[in-house]
Design a protein that fits this description.
alpha+beta; Anthranilate synthase; 2 domains; 21-stranded mixed beta sheet; 12 helices; 34% helix; disordered N terminus; binds ligand ISJ
Amino acid sequence: MTVSPCRSKFFVEHKDLYHFLLSVQENCLTNDCQQIVSVSLDIDWVDPLVVLEKFSQANEINFYFENKGKGEAIAAIDAIAKLQIDGQDRFIQAEHFIKSCLKNIINFGNTNQPFAGTHFFCYFSFFHQKVQINYPFPSATIFLPRWQIAVKNQRCVLVNNIIISTRVNIKKIVQKLHTQLQIIESLQDYSPKLDFPAQFSKKPVTNSVHFKNSVVSALEKIQSNHLSKIVLADVLDVKSSNYFNLFKSLDNLRQIHPNCYIFSTSNGKGQNFIGASPERLISIHSQQLITDALAGSAPRGQTPAEDAANANRLLNSAKERHEHSLVIDFITQRLTQLGLLPQVSAPRLRQLSNIQHLWTPISAIVPANVHPLKIISQLHPTPAVAGAARDIACAEIRRYENFERGLYAAPLGWIDAEGNCEFIVGIRSALIDGDRARLYAGAGIVAGSDPDKEFAEVQLKLQALLKALV
Ligand SMILES: C=C(O[C@@H]1C=C(C(=O)O)C=C[C@H]1O)C(=O)O
């Protein structure tokens, strides 16, 4: 093959990449195949949210994940491979999809840095089947992005996943990467533009009477030993005079909730699902798994003394401890069934800006043959978002809630080629569709729950989210 001389600085600096891609293409010619290359480049620091705002297109899917406290943020834009499915075996199919893609991926560049190399982005719905036929997300989406930009510990990595076939023009591919890099570099001092405040109208879909009646009815079922816990959610519908500014909302969320996971995902059809969740479903780093049992809540106090009193009451409440222990028992049981040896830490407080929770991190070593999605399929939904016994609670949730949960309270995160992953539970979240938003939040109901207090807890969560959206 003839290689024309490349004179630009980029080609000189990246001649290794250029020659690497050419050799991959020659291999494709010989074997009559396609190959995916994950190109990882260290770049100067830039805010991934700003890159998302600049690069995302309404007709392309994307994903955003940030934990400000951990100094981590990752944006994934557009897909070069994607699986969108419904049905019960969605986790198994997702695992197969990832494994079969990985067989055809090679890496280029420095893959030792955090977030370098191939990452798959995944989001699932709470139930594997939807009742609301026109709900805008399928029950599982897994994609390999075209562009991925991430920061950790002040370092920044760009990943460009490229399909190499016999037909593509390697020079054009390298030029495109060069152009994108130049745009990204120009974004270092760019801040997203802010809209003028809009007028908002709010309409709760379930009124307080419906929610409280559901709690009363659920308590009767708990009393008669039909189940021991159920998590009931409520929604708040909001209409704005302007389109919601997604980036402003995400920026607000990360400022207000620096120790939560801020997330956003687009279906490529104009709808986005965003939120700020304190709950990690699983993270795995070098086979070390951590999952959060998070259940049992109290508001933050207005003064340090009130705050401490609320915290003390929460830590010492038999009702809250019972609600919490149902989650620990379920998680440890499920991990044990998978052959893992869960280690349970002492319960502590997870204090957020508006609310505090009982929190027990649980850790385990994951054998190399257990895929993260297998663990997720066993854990989701935990009693933190469904109830106990789980199947009964899920059936009752369908009966009580007169809206589709969709992506609310469901797993959402990334997996890399080595089986490292980070998945959260998509609570305190909103479905955004132009000038409309539907906000979701719930609360766990156990024996001793007070319908007024549970309603107040849900409202507290919804209002905190609403404040960030407007
Ligand atoms: C279901 C939600 O939160 C869950 C319910 C909690 C509770 O009732 O104490 C606490 C944390 C979460 O496990 C939600 O915020 O939507």
